């Protein structure tokens, strides 16, 4: 029987060659393909957009532009309240909040064009690999839907439920980009880990609950509750969020043992398992800061960003665990051995 082959940027090599440590280092040193570079940049920029979106929410800039897709009726924001069209209340004009929200929208447009470019690159280099190509197409379609949904967020004046839906779809787009990116380095093999799938779902639910808690805090403050007491007034929703966080934290620590038990010879999985555990630990620490120290913007943005990165690391670990081929892509903390 012919030896099993592995697909690399340079073509098919034998399984034994790919397992050779010397050859593995050679593979690691090869330059990324144009699709891989673009997919990584697109994924990183999408993560940055989520971070900026968290900053917009934490700073209260979500309605800095009270209409959509324009801003105060113009494609270019007005320079002063005197330039506002008559249908807008001048008291709502705040240059800092306006430009924060407007730059967030511009970044969203940039991400849209990057995802479009990723689809074009996938067509050029991977159109015969439907799992890669159609995943990027799905990400592009969801990005278009996200743009429309962003307008609904503004129209509903940041209602918690639609803000949550908006965030969840952003995270799904990132998951799709990660899938396409990882699959260019290593192809799917065995069945996925049910435990990792469950952990990803619970993490997604926990993030959604966190967005709902943030919305409930806003409602409490707008109702006259002191900011220091707003979180305590949320009640059951906050308790569910904390319980889900503990489940994610425990699952992330247990996941460190999973690669050792299932893939004892696969050295690449362990760094990613440690990344998941480390991000989960940091996420809990930021939650403690927000609950007992401060609900400041920095803690809020950090909490959301780390949660998004945690979900992504869990997804990468799931994809690597499904494969029966050596990993030929980046490894956290250095090369695989």
Q: Specify the overall morphology.
A: flat
Strand order of the largest sheet: 1-2
Poorly predicted spans: 1-19, 21-29, 324-329
Mean pLDDT: 84
* Tally of strands: 2
How many distinct helices?
12
The computed structural class is mainly alpha
Rg over C-alpha atoms, rounded to the nearest angstrom? 22 Å
Tell me the fraction of residues in β-strands, as a range.
Answer: under 5%
Determine the fraction of residues in helical runs and give it as a percent range. 55-70%
Report the sheet with the most strands, covering strand number, pairing sense and barrel closure. 2 strands, antiparallel
> How many distinct domains?
2
Q: Termini distance? A: 28 Å
Topology as a string of helices (H) and strands (E): EEHHHHHHHHHHHH
List keywords for this structure.
single chain, 337 residues, mainly alpha, two-stranded antiparallel ribbon, 12 helices, 2 strands, flat, disordered N terminus
What are the SSEs and their pairings?
Elements: E1 5-8, E2 11-14, H1 15-19, H2 21-29, H3 34-59, H4 95-126, H5 130-155, H6 160-183, H7 194-222, H8 227-230, H9 236-254, H10 257-262, H11 269-292, H12 297-322
Antiparallel strand pairs: 1-2
Helix pairs in contact: 3-4, 3-6, 3-12, 4-5, 5-6, 6-7, 6-12, 7-9, 7-12, 9-11, 11-12
Quick structural overview:
The chain is an all-alpha fold and 337 residues long. It is built from 12 helices and 2 strands, in the order ββαααααααααααα.
């Amino acid at each position: 029987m012919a030896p099993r082959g592995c697909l690399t940027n340079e073509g098919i090599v034998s399984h034994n060659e790919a397992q050779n440590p010397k050859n593995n280092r050679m593979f690691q040193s090869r330059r990324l393909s144009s699709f891989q570079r673009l997919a990584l940049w697109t994924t990183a920029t999408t993560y940055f957009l989520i971070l900026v979106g968290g900053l917009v929410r934490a700073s209260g800039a979500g309605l800095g532009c009270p209409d959509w897709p324009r801003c105060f009726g113009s494609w270019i924001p007005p320079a002063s309240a005197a330039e506002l069209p008559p249908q807008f209340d001048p008291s709502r004009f705040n240059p800092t909040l306006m430009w924060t929200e407007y730059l967030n929208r511009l970044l969203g447009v940039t991400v849209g064009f990057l995802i479009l470019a990723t689809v074009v690159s996938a067509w050029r280099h991977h159109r015969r690999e439907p799992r890669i190509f159609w995943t990027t197409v799905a990400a592009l379609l969801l990005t278009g839907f996200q743009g429309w949904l962003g307008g609904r967020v503004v129209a509903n004046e940041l209602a918690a439920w639609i803000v949550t839906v908006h965030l969840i779809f952003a995270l799904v787009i990132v998951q799709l980009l990660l899938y396409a990116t990882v699959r260019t380095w290593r192809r799917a093999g065995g069945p996925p880990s049910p435990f990792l799938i469950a952990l990803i779902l619970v993490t997604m639910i926990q993030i959604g609950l966190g967005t709902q808690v943030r919305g409930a805090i806003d409602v409490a403050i707008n109702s006259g509750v002191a900011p220091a007491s707003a979180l305590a007034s949320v009640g059951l929703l906050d308790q569910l969020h904390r319980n889900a966080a503990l489940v994610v934290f425990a699952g992330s620590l247990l996941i460190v043992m999973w690669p050792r038990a299932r893939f004892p010879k696969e050295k690449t999985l362990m760094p990613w398992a440690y990344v998941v555990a480390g991000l989960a630990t940091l996420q809990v620490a930021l939650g403690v800061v927000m609950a007992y120290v401060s609900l400041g913007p920095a803690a809020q943005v950090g909490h959301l960003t780390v949660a998004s990165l945690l979900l992504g690391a869990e997804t990468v670990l799931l994809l690597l665990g499904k494969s029966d081929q050596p990993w030929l892509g980046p490894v956290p903390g250095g090369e695989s051995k």
